């Protein structure tokens, strides 16, 4: 008898993991936006940066050798360097809700809110915002809008994104493993590379598709181009820092900071599976990871635990590849 096929969670979103919510805020006039992952508690987190032109805030605090290693929210945003202000808005909302570190009897709560940006400043949106870019406001709106059910496609941080020559977007996907561990991905897709094969329709992520979630299209009989920079990439328009894929992997297991880092590292393979080429000098590819600790893995020292973490990392890569294709697919609809 064949093994049962693994399936997505009920929503096929990162919010299939309890205690995670996602909010989008979109500025249609400026063709930009912000997407925020909120945590109901301060959860173990990590980050791994592979792109050559990242734009970030508070990523060092997630390094395993440093003190905190946890997050209250993670921000994915358009706007390049201006977009980093979105984290200010999120921080203010969370602190007002009394979320964050308490370092004494006085003073406000101090939320830990890492952020990563993508570059969408060259699209046709109106960026004449003078000395008041909209990102702090958009960040606050996205934080307040966070919920279990959220839209994917050309919304939030994906509003002004491009995936090669196609419209980019926000994508998400999940998978439920045999032991009840749920792995999910959330991604803003804006790479210089192509997400589709030479026919312009078949996603490179097609082998990992579940239940026709991004159209169910198979490769053309003629195969695909062997050119390292395929036709639907943006090599001719590439500028350092002008492209990126920024993502979050969530899991409901009790990972340590070091294990969360390993999951983020492994999940980058999902970018390489879904985008060709990936991790270029023009991209700022970043993967965060968040572990909510609902499911207990085998205790250390145990080869079983290392195996369980490896399976989570592999599932994270698969989910991220699917989420990338879903985000672009939904943005075209």
UniProtKB/TrEMBL annotation:
Family matches, as InterPro entries: ArgJ-like_dom_sf, Peptidase_S58_DmpA
Q: What is the lineage of its organism?
A: Bacteria, Pseudomonadati, Pseudomonadota, Alphaproteobacteria, Parvularculales
Q: Which organism is it from?
A: Hyphococcus flavus
Pfam families given in the database record: Peptidase_S58
Q: What SUPFAM superfamilies does the entry give?
A: DmpA/ArgJ-like (SSF56266)
GO MF, one example: aminopeptidase activity
**Under which name does UniProt file this protein?**
P1 family peptidase
According to its UniProt record, which protein family does this protein belong to?
A: Belongs to the peptidase S58 family.
Q: Which domain of life is it from?
A: Bacteria
Q: Which Gene3D superfamilies does this UniProt record tie to the protein?
A: L-amino peptidase D-ALA esterase/amidase
The UniProt transmembrane annotation reads: none
């Amino acid at each position: 008898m064949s093994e049962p096929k693994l399936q997505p969670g009920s929503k096929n979103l990162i919010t299939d993991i309890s205690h995670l919510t996602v909010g989008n805020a979109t500025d249609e006039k400026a063709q930009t936006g912000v997407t925020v992952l909120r945590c109901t508690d301060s959860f173990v987190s990590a980050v791994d940066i592979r792109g050559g032109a990242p734009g970030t805030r508070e990523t060092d605090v997630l390094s395993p050798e440093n003190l905190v290693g946890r997050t209250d929210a993670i921000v994915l945003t358009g706007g390049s360097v201006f977009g980093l202000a979105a984290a200010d808005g999120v921080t203010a909302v969370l602190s007002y809700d009394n979320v964050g570190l308490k370092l004494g009897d006085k003073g406000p709560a101090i939320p830990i809110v890492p952020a990563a940006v993508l570059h969408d400043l060259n699209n046709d949106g109106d960026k004449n915002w003078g000395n008041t870019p909209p990102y702090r406001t958009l960040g606050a709106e996205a934080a307040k809008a966070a919920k279990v059910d959220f839209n994917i496609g050309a919304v939030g941080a994906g509003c002004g994104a491009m995936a090669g020559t196609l419209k980019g977007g926000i994508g998400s996907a999940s998978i439920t493993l045999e032991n009840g561990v749920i792995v999910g991905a959330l991604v803003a897709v804006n790479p210089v590379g192509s997400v589709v094969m030479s026919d312009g329709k078949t996603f490179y992520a097609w082998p990992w598709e579940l239940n026709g979630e991004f159209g169910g299209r198979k490769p053309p009989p003629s195969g695909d181009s062997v050119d390292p920079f395929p036709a639907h990439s943006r090599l001719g328009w590439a500028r350092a820092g002008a492209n990126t894929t920024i993502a979050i992997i969530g899991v409901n297991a009790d990972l340590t900071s070091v294990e969360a880092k390993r999951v983020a590292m492994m999940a980058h393979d999902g970018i390489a599976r879904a985008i060709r080429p990936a991790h270029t000098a023009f991209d700022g590819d970043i993967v965060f990871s968040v572990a909510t600790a609902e499911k207990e893995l085998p205790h250390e020292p145990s080869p079983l635990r290392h195996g369980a973490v490896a399976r989570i990392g592999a599932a994270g890569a698969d989910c991220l590849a699917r989420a990338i294709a879903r985000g672009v697919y939904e943005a075209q609809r």
